[in-house]
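hey so i finally got around to running the thing on that chain from the lab meeting. sorry it took forever, my laptop kept dying and i had to restart like 3 times. anyway pasting the input first so we r on the same page abt which one it is
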Amino acid sequence: QVQLVESGGGLVQAGGSLRLSCAASGRTFISYTMGWFRQAPGKEREFVAAIAWSGGRTSYADSVKGRFTISRDNAKNTVYLQMNSLKPEDTAVYYCAAAFRAPDYNYWGQGTQVTVSS
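ok and heres what got predicted. didnt touch it at all, straight out
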């Protein structure tokens, strides 16, 4: 079992930055691919970024490439999403997820709201 708790969301002006954190419980954190997803009002949940267990391989949605960076600290059981040059269209609830075998994500956090004002 893996429990995930996100933090770091908030209100920011367009062009600003936020860093989301996702703290995971469980001794097998290092075994999981970790991902970030988001869901805007009235829209389907969409993939944002993912990072392999070693941290050596990452992937991003085209809409965030060059602006967002995913990273992980396995010693702290934490994954991060650094978000720069934020746009109003980045407004959404952001979810952290863990996949024992990507892309099938087995565990999800409760989400953290990110609001970008224009």
